[in-house]
Amino acid sequence: MTLLLTHADVQASVSMADAIVAMEEAFAEEGEGAALLPQRINMKAGNGWLRVGPVVLEKLGLTGFKAMNLAPGHGLRYQVHLYRIETGELLSIMDAQHLTTLRTGATSAVATGAGGPARLGRRSARTTRGHAGRRLRSQRTRLQSDRGQPRAACS
Known about the structure:
The chain is α+β, with helices and mostly antiparallel strands.
């Protein structure tokens, strides 16, 4: 049975701690090469736009996409569709405004190892040293270069 989750449902169900664990798992899977994350699809829609970001997380057995749309004068809306890879079953359609907000903070927490004392030295630290950490350090270096700041040494 497909779960339909409103913004209020998602807020009541997903905490920052949940988001940090989810981002740790997703970055670990991406670092192991088991995630397929193609470029987002961007297209004009009237005076606004529609953006779709697909993903496949093989080890978790999940696939899906996040759709974002902007309708000028009406705002920005986010939605996630989540499927089970093995059966193709649509597991959930959910409002993703809260998830988008949590993801931003959770990504920072994972990248800085600030997931909490219980997680330090576990997956968050390993992920930071791995693929995600290299990508974040590369982005930081590029931003510093763009701003005319000296490049930080990356370990």
